[in-house]
């Protein structure tokens, strides 16, 4: 009887010990919620495919931003060299002007004085020239002293200098000395456009006095606009002159503007970036100076570890892949991704438990994610 009781007790204890092992396994899986175990039926329905991470040639796309700029030779600030009152103008910001077109009229009494001084000097130089010639002849025949001849020559040469300087001043304000006379003196001068382009700024109004240092108008010739991009120091070595790019505005991201790198700046700002100037292949009049643009530049192909796009899942703002860790067991592992091309995505860095020999799920990753969510719920 005692033997029977002893055997019964032993069987109960062995049965209890055998039931603790699955509980331990379940506890282990509960500790790591990133591990999912599938049955044979689940594995078949999920259509799981696996593979290794391999090195692929992925062409990186460098994304930059900047704005449309105009070279200094295509921007003109209009001012009046001698100042004056603005009598009239028809300019408005955005208006188109042609080279040589009168864009404003300036008047001032000093313009009258300049023309008077020139005509007076012109009238006097005839007398001084004749006196210089007469004294020269007399001096050669010893009929007059050298002093008188030298004085006549000095007055004549001084008058020539005065006439030349007055003529240059008149030319500076746009008055042709050939067009003025005693009966034709003007109190106003025309301001002409030196370029074909558009008016970007109008800084004056009718009747205002402007000094020589003030800018009346600013004109822009947009036919030679370029794109100035900001490039960080770490990306400068990826660029070269002549490199192709595609640029687009935020308003029209699908409309691409082809261009190429024209100049790479070597002066870094406080933010550790440099200016890279790019030229558009074709001029588009819809592109306005000052407009912000984005650009995409294809850089050299590099070999990097990559995995199929289908292997990557998005969960709670992060990216994951599933690593095969055992029979029907998969572990969700966080990754950092780089560029994508031809159905593959670059994995920026491999962790210690993600070697190139590890096996990962390449198809059916989202099925695993859904199973994990349902299990968690």
TrEMBL record:
Signal sequence, start to end: none
Keywords linked to the UniProt accession: Transport
Keyword hit for Repressor: no
Keyword Transport: yes
Domain of life the protein comes from: Bacteria
UniProt cross-references to InterPro entries, sorted A to Z: MFP_Cation_Efflux (IPR051909), RND_pump_MFP (IPR006143)
Family assignment from sequence similarity: Belongs to the membrane fusion protein (MFP) (TC 8.A.1) family.
Listed name of the protein: Efflux RND transporter periplasmic adaptor subunit
Organism: Mucilaginibacter aquariorum
Taxonomy of the source species: Bacteria, Pseudomonadati, Bacteroidota, Sphingobacteriia, Sphingobacteriales
């Amino acid at each position: 009887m005692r033997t029977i009781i002893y055997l019964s007790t032993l069987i109960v204890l062995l049965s209890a010990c055998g039931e603790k092992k699955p509980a331990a396994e379940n506890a282990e899986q509960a500790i790591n919620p990133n591990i999912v175990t599938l049955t044979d039926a689940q594995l078949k329905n999920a259509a799981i495919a696996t593979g290794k991470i391999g090195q692929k040639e992925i062409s990186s796309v460098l994304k930059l931003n900047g704005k449309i700029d105009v070279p200094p030779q295509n921007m003109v600030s209009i001012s009046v060299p001698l100042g004056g009152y603005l009598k009239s103008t028809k300019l408005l910001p955005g208006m188109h002007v042609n080279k040589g077109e009168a864009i404003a009229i300036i008047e001032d009494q000093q313009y009258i004085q300049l023309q008077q001084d020139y005509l007076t000097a012109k009238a006097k130089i005839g007398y001084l020239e004749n006196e210089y010639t007469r004294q020269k002849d007399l001096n050669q025949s010893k009929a007059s002293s050298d002093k008188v001849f030298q004085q006549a020559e000095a007055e004549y040469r001084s008058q020539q200098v005065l006439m030349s300087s007055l003529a240059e001043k008149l030319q500076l304000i746009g008055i042709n000395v050939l067009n003025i006379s005693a009966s034709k003196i003007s109190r106003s001068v025309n301001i002409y456009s030196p370029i074909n382009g558009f008016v970007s700024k109008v800084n004056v109004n009718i009747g205002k006095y402007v000094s020589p240092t003030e800018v009346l108008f600013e004109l822009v010739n947009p036919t030679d606009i370029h794109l100035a991009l900001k490039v960080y120091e770490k990306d400068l070595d990826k660029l070269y002159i002549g490199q192709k790019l595609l640029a687009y505005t935020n308003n029209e991201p699908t409309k691409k503007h082809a261009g190429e790198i024209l100049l790479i700046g070597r002066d870094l700002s406080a933010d550790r970036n440099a200016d890279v100037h790019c030229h558009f292949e074709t001029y588009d009049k819809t592109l306005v100076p000052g407009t912000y643009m984005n650009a995409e530049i294809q850089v050299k192909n590099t070999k990097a570890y990559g995995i199929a796009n289908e292997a990557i899942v998005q969960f709670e703002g992060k990216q994951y892949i599933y690593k095969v860790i055992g029979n029907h067991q998969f572990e969700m592992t966080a990754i950092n991704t780089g560029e994508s091309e031809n159905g593959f995505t670059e994995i920026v860095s491999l962790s210690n438990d993600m070697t190139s020999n590890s096996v990962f799920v390449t198809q059916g990753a989202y099925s695993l994610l859904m199973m994990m969510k349902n299990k968690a719920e």
